[in-house]
Amino acid sequence: MEIPYTVKPRPDTGLYNAKVGIWLFLASEVMLFGAFFSAYILLRVGAPEGFWPDVATGWPHGLLNIPIGTFNTAVLIASSVTVVMAWAALKENNFPKFQKFMVFTVACALGFLTIKTFEYNEKFTHYVIRMKDGSAVTGHLNIDGHSPRFWSLKDVEEKKLEALKVEVDIPNKFRFPVGMKIPEAVHEAHKSGKHHEEKEFKVADIASLKAFVPATATFFAIYFTMTFLHGLHVLAGALVLAYFAFLGRKFWQQHPEQFTNRIEVAGLFWHFVDLVWIFLFPVVYLL
Amino acid sequence: MQTATTHAPGHAHGDAHAHHEPGFWQKYIFSSDHKMIGIQYGITSLLFLFFGFLLMLAMRYQLAHPGQPIPFVGGLMEKSLGDDMAKGGVMQADLYNAFGAMHGTIMVFLAIVPLLFGAFGNYVTPLQIGAPDMAFPRLNMASYHLFFWGGAVMLSSFFIPGGAAKSGWTSYSPLATMADSNFINGQTLWLIGMVLLITSSLLGAVNFIATIIQLRAKGMSWMRLPFFVWAQFVTAFLLLLAFPPLEAAGLMQLADNILGTSFFLPTGLVVNGSQPDVSGGGSPLLWQHLFWFLAHPEVYVLILPAMGIVAEIIANNTRKPLWGYKSLVYAVLSIGFLAFIVWAHHMYLTGMGTKIATFFQTTTMMISIPSVIILTALFISLWGGSIRFNTPMLFALSFLPMFGIGGLTGLPLGFNASDIYLHDSYYVIGHFHYVVAPGTIFGIFAGIYFWFPKATGRMMNETLGKIHWFGSLVCMNGVFMPMFIQGLRGMSRRMYDGGATYFGSGVGADPGILRLNNAITAAAIALAVFQLPFIFNFFWSMWNGKKVESDNPWDATTFDWQTPTPPPHGNFDVEPVAHRGPYEYSVPGSKKDFTPQGQAS
Q1: What's the ipTM?
Q2: Domain locations along chain A
Q3: Is the Cβ of B132 closer than 8 Å to some Cβ of chain A?
Q4: What is the pLDDT of residues B321-357, one digit of tens each?
Q5: How confident is the model at residue B11 (pLDDT cuts 50, 70, 90)?
């Protein structure tokens, strides 16, 4: 006996097996991301008043690049449109058109991931420096013209540096850190209205040096965890869609209906990945 | 083990399988046949069940005779686990904690759930709905392999420096993050193992629900499904929706352990008198909420399929329809819904405030109603039946009062006021184990004795079965009943010396309570002895048991008994069609006392 309804829908449910399967899987995914969003809410509501790094366990604000995030949102939404067009092309029996749209979808996915990688790198080279007098600055280091990744004070000591050149973020009304106690050296720059200015700090004055990595603050922890998990979903989706786009021709010729079903199911997953980002973007970038 | 190896000609499914006899690997290891996967799950998880039981025996010995070397295996433990864990064959505190955590984890996630859901669910569900296989056979195979590797990772954690996870099966943070300083420690492996197990359960749940929705045979309407299938259906939904939050929590705790994040580490945390180098700002309560959001529905995952098995066996052996089939179905659906909104009754002691506590107290009382409906319907089903007291039926019958004790002793734990006294005492252990040990495990034994002839074509020995049943029933009560007394007396569940520190001498001295430890341990050892007839019977009957005379040795009505024995790949010779409800026993006017679902009128 063959397994029934692998291709044709079951009359009383109106669904073929894989479609039931993917919706159930997506339900569990909703619970997975739902748990992370709940965790985000609980951690944020539990954070003390005031912004990080001013308050050590406060919630940071304005650290993520909103224009880039917006662009990435647009990229994903575009890919969600084209994945439907690809499916519709199969319904029209037009495989080359399907391939075109699918390749565009995959390109969007890879574009999204590339942009995300640059965003991550920007964070890994961005530092919070706490002074022994209790003040703090954030900014990129300038070690021989570039900012290294994942440094701590130990790396500075190993290099036997006496002073640390920092491209300091100048606090202002719109950018964090609003009420932070800033070192004397930055006071003047504050009035100038510039966004960045290079300053030098004596290593002996520095209490700690930490990159914007998950361990540095709870915000980074949840930001990286959620976006990384989402990124993994994008990658998985892209691999599956690319497989269909480049290696699907033979299967399409043999089982056109089943192939179309597979694209529909993969497309549902892709919409879900898109939808997660549509929640993720306002929550971590904007709020 | 001969099951599913017969490959009826013309019954291959999918184009991936040619019509030739598959080789050893494809037949036994990488099989996509639901029956073989069910057997794989069954054998693996029975081994885990036995191993979890042995861990408990070692702990029980330590509780009754604190500081004395464990007999027989003490030397082996010292050699394999090191001086820190078992110096001179004596169980050290760390080892006790590790065994405790792993006993819970192994029993719940590697033994009971895979037995009920993986083994019985896989083997019986497609047969009962009249399907040729699961909806996604290869996904089914992936579920088993993820489960297997999850279990392997868990077991390997015993042998790494620092030993297995020691923070209880609940793994509360910050203890779970701070207990071990090694980079890769028992807790890390526990979390990796859990992520694999959860993924396995999720894939399984998707597969089960899709199968039950899509692959029901012609005429098999929802209200004609055997109750067992309903129980599996609701269980699958519980797994599908409750497990992902634990997966999220597991990933976050993994990040806490290896990336140094502070998801669950509060600000100002002090460990051994110093502040660890973490950012703080996290919430230990967050872990507890996410954990119990899974772990309460998990309790129903542990009990519902067992109720399903018991219902099948009771209907079959009373030779009359289940009383209140529809009430049973609606009750199991209500449990499925309510199970998601009771979790915080495990957390009354966290100071959640009286208003929230009242909410969870109310929902907890509400969920006891459908549970009582199920139990009552099963009890009433016995009324006026001409009961056949065979081994499966004896286990199924003892399930009822044992689960009853487990359920009723749960009520004081559901009430905020009484829970504050009983929390973390042996009373909780007693309550929980009455539900899962003489409850669920009796359901599992009943199921094994019941479906063994379908899977192997041979009956298990009745005399050995009855010895096994009687010994287990007495000893289970011997183990768990005294725990209520100890708990009510205030004995904490976490003391590795069996409470000698508190009850041994001084103001609160109570040697009587300590003597109960010896009684419990003696009962546990006797319980182990009474499992020997089962183990012997299981293997002996596979080759030497009495051969079944027909495909339907119990004169049952459901589809699983209408297949050839053992069922071939594809299950049915002719496409089954359901003409009636699942339990048409002793229909007035019919010649036989059972009318199979597939029999046209």
Answers
A1: 0.94
A2: 17-122+217-286, 126-211
A3: yes
A4: 999 999 999 999 999 999 999 999 999 998 788 899 9
A5: very low
pTM for the model: 0.94
Residue numbers in A near B571 (CB within 8 A):
1
Nearest CA in chain A to B131: A3
Contact between B37 and B144 (Cβ < 8 Å): yes
The topology under which CATH files domain B31-265+282-561 is: Cytochrome C Oxidase; Chain A (1.20.210)
Structural contact between residues B186 and B253, judged by C-beta atoms closer than 8 angstroms? no
Tokens of B331: 């009750």
Which site among B218, B237, B261 would you substitute to test the A interface, given the most A Cβ atoms closer than 10 Å to its Cβ? B261
Mutation target to probe the B interface, by most B beta carbons within 10 A, among A6, A8, A28, A250 is A28
**The three-state (H, E, C) secondary structure of chain A, written as one string:** CCCCCCCCCCCCCCCCHHHHHHHHHHHHHHHHHHHHHHHHHHHHHHCCCCCCCCCCCCCCCCCCCHHHHHHHHHHHHHHHHHHHHHHHHHHCCCHHHHHHHHHHHHHHHHHHHHHHHHHHHHHHCEEEEEECCCCEEEEEECECCECCCCCCHHHHHHCCCCEEEEEEECCCCCCCCCCCCCCHHHHHHHHHCCCEEEEEEEHHHEEEEEECCCCCCHHHHHHHHHHHHHHHHHHHHHHHHHHHHHHCHHHHHHCHHHHHHHHHHHHHHHHHHHHHHHHHHHHHHHC
Q: Please state the CATH superfamily assignment of the domain spanning residues A17-122+217-286 in this structure.
A: Cytochrome c oxidase, subunit III, four-helix bundle (1.20.120.80)
Cis amide leading into A53 (omega within 30):
yes
Given an 8 Å threshold on Cβ–Cβ distance, is A43 in contact with B286?
yes
For residue B42, the one-letter residue type is: G
Q: Encode pLDDT of B285-317 as tens digits.
A: 999 999 999 999 999 999 999 999 999 999 999
Gap from B186 CA to chain A (nearest CA, Å) = 21
- Distance, in angstroms, between A43 CA and closest chain B CA? 6
Place of tokens 């490959």: B7
Name the more confident of A199 and B209.
B209
Cβ atoms of residues B557 and B595 within 8 Å = yes
Q: At B594, phi and psi to the nearest 5?
A: -145, 145
Contact A21 B259 (CB under 8 A): no
Tokens representing B60 are 């029980």
Pick from B206, B212, B243, B350 the residue to mutate for testing the A interface (most A CBs within 10 Å): B206
- Which 8-state DSSP code applies to residue B346? G
Q: Does B261 touch chain A if contact means CB atoms closer than 8 Å?
A: yes
